[in-house]
Design goal:
The chain is an alpha/beta fold and 326 residues long. It has helices at 8-12, 15-22, 62-67, 80-89, 100-108, 119-127, 145-152, 178-187, 201-211, 224-233, 243-250, 307-310, 314-321, and strands at 2-3, 31-35, 50-54, 72-75, 92-95, 163-166, 192-195, 215-217, 236-239, 254-258, 280-283. A six-stranded parallel β-sheet has the order 8-7-6-9-10-11, with helices on both faces. Helix 9 links the parallel strand 7 and strand 8. It starts with a strand and ends in a 5-residue tail after the last helix.
Length: 326
């Protein structure tokens, strides 16, 4: 049993662990537990034998989990809920070390004791004693043929190539500002598909007002896996620190990631297969004294200037966007 609850991106980042455990001999039965709203991220994963989900509380599936008679639980979340689950099942477990104290030091005092190691590699450390090894193939994301029909419905002028632009983000201070999105889209040599959820409709509508049919607004209109199908077939992806960035990584896309209040040193930057690192372009204001202001994000800039996003060099972003795909 593998446990990870919190977000689309976090769950996608567990996929190398799933694949590594699947490759063990003898092959184990792999069950995964997460919240129901994240089920689409794993429902097509061929390395998972059973996917358990719950709406609010783990007790909703307590009886079913106990009936499985697990021999090992791999806890890649390590929070109060997952600790309750370990007590409830009473089986051997391996738990991920979240480094929350070190992240707090980096945010609160700008004191850096963070390891220069991606979270995927730290996830792998959790299971290396079992014999699991990182095969270097990067992340996985599996979608079905029905989801890929979203690509066939694109307007004709998108057929020769397009970029994907992620409009939103979990928190305001992780989102690319509207004026930046418009400037980047205006400078792009290719049309762009705008990706996001229902909360991003207003912002994406503003982009359409300015740029017309150069952009296609899909925000709140597609499922997660349909949006992922559009990423799978695009040329490049423009995004902030989002779950879509990790899905793009799984498809080995060239990614232009714009970083606001969070920092790549937290270990959550785009994770590429070996040899593909040049496809990941990180844009950030490294010498900003107030950054990072949070390990997650805020609904407004605490300093009210949002320089971490506003000071990013739009021209440089556009130049890399318009280069031939690497």
């Amino acid at each position: 049993m593998i446990v990870r609850f919190s977000s689309i991106g976090d769950i996608v980042l567990t996929t190398p662990v799933i694949r590594a455990l699947y490759q063990l001999k003898p092959a184990p039965q792999i069950h995964f537990i997460t919240k129901a709203r994240y089920a689409d991220t794993l429902k097509n994963n061929p390395y998972i034998h059973k996917l358990y989900t719950f709406e609010k509380e783990i007790t909703e599936i307590k009886a079913a989990l106990k009936a499985e008679n697990y021999t090992l639980l791999v806890d890649l979340h390590n929070n109060l809920r997952s600790r309750r689950l370990k007590l409830m099942l009473g089986v051997e477990s391996r738990s991920f070390h979240k480094l929350n104290y070190r992240k707090w030091l980096r945010v609160r005092f700008k004191y850096d004791r963070l390891p220069r190691l991606h979270v995927v590699d730290r996830y792998m450390q959790t299971v290396e004693a079992l014999g699991a090894k990182n095969d270097g193939k990067g992340l996985d994301y599996f979608i079905g043929d029905e989801d890929r029909k979203a690509v066939s419905r694109l307007p004709g002028h998108f057929k020769a190539g397009y970029h994907a632009m992620v409009v939103g983000g979990a928190h305001y201070t992780k989102q690319i500002p509207l004026e930046k999105l418009i400037a980047i889209a205006r400078g792009s040599r290719l049309p762009l598909v705008l990706l996001g959820g229902p909360d991003d409709r207003e912002k994406s509508a503003e982009i359409v007002k300015v740029l017309g049919d150069k952009v296609l607004n899909t925000c709140g209109r597609l499922s997660l896996n349909e949006s992922s199908a559009l990423i799978e077939q695009c040329e490049k992806v423009i995004t902030s620190d989002t779950g879509m960035m990790h899905i793009a990584s799984a498809f080995n896309k060239e990614i232009l990631s714009l970083w606001g209040n969070t920092i790549p040193e937290f270990g959550m930057y785009a994770y590429m297969p070996k040899g593909s690192e040049k496809r990941n372009h990180i844009f950030e204001i490294k010498d900003l004294s107030c950054r990072p202001c949070s390990k997650i994000g805020f609904e407004q800039c605490p300093k009210e200037h949002f320089r971490c996003m506003m000071d990013l060099d739009t021209e440089k972003i556009i130049n890399i966007l318009n280069r031939e795909t690497e």
